[in-house]
Each structure stands twice: as C-alpha cells, then as structure tokens.
Amino acid sequence: MSGHEHRGRTFTYRLGSSQNSTKKLSPSSPPKSSMAVELRSNLSWTMLRKKKSIASIHYSFRLDLFLLLFLLSIPRSISELNTMQGFCAVASDSDCSSSFTKILIKGGTVVNAHHKEVADVYIEDGIIVSVRPNIKVGDEVKIVDATGKYVMPGGIDPHTHLEMEFMGTVMIDDFFTGQAAALAGGTTMHIDFIIPVNGSLSAGFDSYIKKAKNAVMDYGFHMAITKWDEEVAKDMELMVKENGINSFKFFMAYKGALMVNDELLMQGLVKCKSLGALAMVHAENGDAIAEGQKRMIDLGITGPEGHSLSRPPVLEGEATARAIRLASFVNTPLYVVHVMSIDAMEEIAVARKAGQRVIGEPVVSGLVLDESWLWDPDFTTAAKYVMSPPIRKAEHGKALQAALTTGTLQGKVEVTISGGRVVWENNKLNIMPGSGRYIRMPPYGYLFDGIDKADAAYLASLHAPVHRTKAAA
User: What residues does the Amidohydrolase-related domain cover (predicted)?
Assistant: First the structure.
C-alpha cells in the first residue's frame, strides 16, 4: 500500500483484553460498530492494538456479508457519554476541541483486504493523501502513535434506525445522540432507513433530511416501500437518480403496518432491477406471525417471551426462502437484513452455493445474545431485548458466528478521527451538531454485472412462442 493515495476518513481503536466474556451486553450500549466491506465509498481507517496474527478464516456457511464485525466492549450509554468528564457537544477552546487539519498516524500495521505492512497514514483536510513508511512532517501536524496497533479500513454501519416513528413509538436515539455514541464506538458513517410518510417516499425523504439537521457524522439512507402505485414507482426512480438512494427495503412482517404482500414485493423487485438498486427484505412471514400472536394471547402469554414464541425461526426461514425464490425469478440481487436464525442462514447459503446473488446481514444481537433474556422475571429488563426477528436460542448465535468468522475481537476505542478532526480522544467527544454530511450513493452497478446476459440466455432457452397452425377440419 505504500506510495499510494487514499481518500477517506479516519478513526482508531486500541484493543483491550481478549478474554472470553459471558457477561450479557447491555441494551443501552452504543450502536453496533461494523464494517461494510463491500460499500466502496467513504472508507475510514481503524487502529487496533495487535493481539495476535489474523489466521485464515473458513466459513461453515459462507455468506457474502456487508458486515465485517468487531464487537466492542464499551458499556456506556449515550446518557453516560453526555455526563462523563470532558464531553463536548460543540467545539470550544478546551483541550477537547482539536482542530488539526493535518494528522499523521505513525508506525501502525496498515491492513486492507489482502495486504498488511507497517506504515504511516498522512491525512490532510480530511483526505488520506499518503500511506507509506517513515513519512516526515512538520510541527504543525498532529501525530497519533499507532505503534503496536492495526490500522485498517473502518466502520460503516449499514443498518440503523434513528428517531424512527413506529407503531405509536419513537426511537429514543436521534441523529445527534445516536451518532455521538457511534463515533465514541469508532463508527464514522451509517446508513439509516427512511420510513415513508403515508406511503410517500418524497415526504419521507424530506422528513428524514430534517431529522438529520443535527448530524455529527456522515450518513446515507435506504428507503422502505410500504405500498405500491405509480407515484411510488416514479418516486423510486427519483430517489435513485436525484437523491442518492440505491437500496429499497420491503417488510414481509408487521401485518397491518409496514408489511407488503407477494404481489407488491414482486413489483418492487422488478423496479429495483430496472434502476440498478438493491432490494432488501425483512424476512418473516407476517400472516403466520399474526396467527402466532393470537395463539399466545389465547394461552395467556402476553409478556416479552410471547414475542419470540409467536415468531419462531421457521417463519424467518420460510420468508427468507420465499424472498430468495422471487428474487431468483426476477433475476435481481437480494439483501436479507438482520439474519437471526440457522433457518434463514441455511436458505442464504444454499442460494449462494447455487450462484444466486444473495447477501445476508448479521447483527450484534443475533451473534452474541440469546433468548434467555426474554424470560427475565423483571418485565423492564426482558422488554429491552424485544426485536424482530427475535433473539434466538444460543445455538443460532453460535452458528451465525461460525458463518461469519472463527473468532471475535473485543476492544476499547481510544481515538476516533472523522473529517480530518479528532472527535474522540481521552474519553472526550468533540462534535459539532450539523457537521455531518449526507452521502449520496450511486446504484450498485457491480452487483448487476452479467444480469442482462443471464436474462438473454434465459429467453433463448424458452423455445417459445410456438407458432401453430389451425388443425384441418
């Protein structure tokens, strides 16, 4: 990598103890930190203390994942961050208001997808301009000592819900508090999901742009589709061509709220293909879940455990299989969000082995938690672990981990550098509301390579239509 120029933002990690921990994660921990290894823009650099060499990784079920996940042991909620010593909501004249426009990360082991070497990383005005050994700089440059640490492309979290309005509730973290926690955890970009306003994509987009006015880090958007008509179809084209949205999510669950039926899903898949946009699905069978909910109520099971019991893994697996087969019929790529069960994972693995373009997304909760929390006698504690698809039995998480990696790294974030400024150092945040940027993303051209050729081969194989003559009288 030495001698090459790199563009992006920078943040750094230092690893702490690598001991295995059985302590359950607090639901008030900062948002998950993750790496989108296939998102090709706005890459960052991350610094990790070297603990041991990274061995070759083999997957029992190989998933083509957007996320290369590092689990960070940071048990602080955003409320704790706000009250901790030295928190800076706005840059000031205090020692946490670093305004360096030139930064050198010195002496770390720089790692990318296929190579590693000891080198320095020089950043100027937020741009990584040089990666090579022994870079010489003047006194005006801030130097971050990375000796004994890994420096690697860093965190894009592609699945967040900030200030989301849902079934009479609003997510507690907004675009300031949620992003502040993410920065403290080493994530420097995220992609949030826009929920349409009364089915309108344009109204939903305008609403989320306003919500993000206090953003403190780079962000992008996915768009949910909750109904179908000509206006929605036109709006999808507008979102891709003018607003920089290249992915659309379809909920196969939440009957009576966000759920779409198979007809709408089919139309959406066809439209995504025509736009070069990625179709995403929340894969659970909403009709069966509604029946499961009635069953739980009849049995008097109305606590958080009933949520999990009403939507078992088989319903996630069924919906995943159905979405995969519909995407195969349309011949368009598919992204399955928050894969939580062996059932869903196996469907993805089988499709990928057959050559279908399917991407599975794990999330921290599915990898490291188990459903025992839902049976906690304290309702408030149990309720904190309700999500959809639900957290499963421990064997599901272990299988998902095996599909993702052979081990986990646990660490403590030491320094976060974003936009050419140190925004997290010495347990102090230095962030400015409104300093975040909306990142417009082009269509996923590389995911659609060869699609037209495959379509042509399919049409040629039909040997149809057959031109028949009328039978003689």
Answer: 150-294
- Give the dihedral sign, CA 50/12/222/114: negative
Q: How confident is the model at residue 154 (pLDDT cuts 50, 70, 90)?
A: low
Q: Which sequence spans correspond to the domains of the chain?
A: 158-172+222-405
Express each pLDDT in 251-264 by its tens digit: 999 999 999 999 99
Q: Which CATH superfamily is domain 158-172+222-405 in?
A: Metal-dependent hydrolases (3.20.20.140)
Q: Considering the entire predicted model, what is its pTM? A: 0.73
Residue 158 in contact with residue 190, Cβ under 8 Å? yes
- pLDDT of 127 reads 81
Q: Buried b / exposed e across 78-98, counting CB within 10 Å, b at 16+?
A: beebeeeeebbeebeeeebeb
State pLDDT tens for residues 128-149.
889 999 999 999 999 989 898 8
